[in-house]
Amino acid sequence: MANQSNDSILDLRDICSKPKNSIHDNLLWKYQDTQFSRPAESQYNPESCKISYTIKEYSIQGKLLNKDYKNIRKIQLKHDRKSYFGLHLCLESMGNKEVSVFEVNPILRKSIIQLEAENERPDIPIINFIENKYRNIIDQPQIWIIEVHDIEEIEDNEKLTLEEREQKVKQLKSQATQLFKEQKYKEAIQVYKNIHSKIGQIPKALKNTMTQEQKTFFQVELSRVYSNQAICHLQLKEYAKAIETSKQAMNDWDQNFKAYFIYAKAHFERDQKSEALEYFQQIIQKFPNEDVTEVQKYLDKCKQPKTTKNEQQLYKKIFEKLQDKDEDEIQREQKEKFEKVEKNRQTEKILNSAKNGQSINHEEIQKLQ
């Protein structure tokens, strides 16, 4: 979005002097060629897209009304009914990467749900979305500056065949794996959630046509999606979420060794050693053919006696003293090295003086011994 030296105040004189087109019943206008405007790079179908955007809402006096204007929001117009009706109309008139300026009538700041409710029951009170201190200007027009940041095409999940779902799962798994390698754990979680929509939300009519092999495939893959998502939560130190998702993975497929290990490890990281000990022991019993080397390491850690607070403070003091001692020894060694070098330098100076016929100062020689 175009830069302003002060985002909280906007001089509307230049904007209001520009030509504008009516978008909806003379209640919404789109300004042309303002200093903020930027043309679209491409067009999109708002019915099948998830749109990432930011919005600045100004009063007609030029006062910024929303503090969260820097937050990038996402909206799928087909399903969203709570956002402003005017916002829907604005985004429908825009393209990808476009920045546009709109003048908005107060009526269009109501949600679609509100408008429908008012048509059915005119006595329902209006719910305002503006901060309390700006309620006195709620009935005045606003200026909106909207930037479309990105577009994500949304597939119709209902129409995907089982073969298409299998293919999508493989593609998305590869994408999530790469993100995990790059330590982009939050992004990987979003991809795993996308995979879940492909295999965890299969329409009933389609499920009835599945072979046993396909049922097993989707069941196992769904479990793996949850366990991989749990690993990401573990890396982000979101231990409660790691426990929740790994538990779901275990419920979907009770032979998911990885899910059991994450579940136990998350309890260990939360300092729930007794619970973790029990779960690690269960893993060794349940999976005798798996490599449990890492499990055994954590099992041993769980069995180690826990140090009390007083013991921890004592160890800390001892360690600090050892550090101080090491520093003293280093300083002493450095001092001895310096003195040795200085003695050699002084001795060499006296010997050079003797070679030049000068008398030797025996007192200085004595000091260097």
TrEMBL record:
The keyword Repeat applies. Residues 333-348 have a biased composition (Basic and acidic residues). InterPro entries: AIP/AIPL1/TTC9 (IPR039663), TPR-like_helical_dom_sf (IPR011990), TPR_rpt (IPR019734). Gene3D superfamilies: Tetratricopeptide repeat domain (1.25.40.10). The keyword Repeat applies. SMART domains: TPR. TPR repeats lie at residues 257-290. It comes from Paramecium tetraurelia. This is Uncharacterized protein. It comes from the Eukaryota. Residues 333-369 are annotated as: Disordered. Keywords: Coiled coil, Repeat, TPR repeat. Residues 349-360 have a biased composition (Polar residues). PROSITE patterns: TPR. Pfam families: TPR_6. PANTHER family: ARYL HYDROCARBON RECEPTOR INTERACTING PROTEIN RELATED, TPR_REGION DOMAIN-CONTAINING PROTEIN. Residues 155-182 form a coiled coil.
